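Closing statement on the ribulose-5-phosphate sub-project.
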Amino acid sequence: MNQDEMKQAVAQAAVETIEPMLQDDSIVGVGTGSTANYFIDALAAIKHKFDGTVASSIASAERLKNLHIPVFELNSVFDVAVYVDGADESNHQLQLIKGGGGALTREKIVAAVSEQFVCIIDASKIVDVLGTFPLPIEVIPMARGHVAREVLALGGDPRYRQGFTTDNGNIILDVYQLEIRSPEELEQTINNITGVVCNGLFAARPANQVLIGTATGVQTL
Ligand code: 5RP
């Protein structure tokens, strides 16, 4: 199985995992990225079993609408039964780095309001210590220099994601050279830097389940 096939298999497994959690009036949170896209495609098969979705990006909302799956604004729904999304890294505590696709802020908001967060990844993304994948930080454009200097002081190597604007109109700094041994602490420290909108550590609110697509099938962490 190649990486794409693993992503597809784990996305299908996510649909089977969440189906028993859903009722007619349930809302499903939907993430962003290539694995989330496979999930959206698989979700279409059970779209009659729940009310609709909230999406963590404009791109995912468009994909859902193209498959005639209803998409609601988060502010117009009462709660979200389950959120399904990919990740760039997961440790064994189900803490994640997300934001490779730049949708981290909306992803974190949807995760925060969801009762369950099912993360879907391929086996290459499991790590002992987070930080090999550069940590994305969404930053208000005028604070770019300030945030970069603060991150340097924390031992990271911040790089501006050229030519990219988030759905919220902000920029992304990708931070290299971090060996993240205390994810919750670092998540909070970075969030406290003025000008930071959000960072891609999902440690204070980790996943409830991580489904891993491997060459021999889907495993649960
Ligand atoms: C987007 C994300 C994605 O979930 C993450 O980048 C993984 O993407 P993919 O499924 O394409 O490997 O956080 O902001």
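Helices lie at 3-18, 34-43, 58-66, 104-113, 144-153, 183-191. With this model delivered, the sub-project is considered complete and its resources will be redirected to Aim 3.
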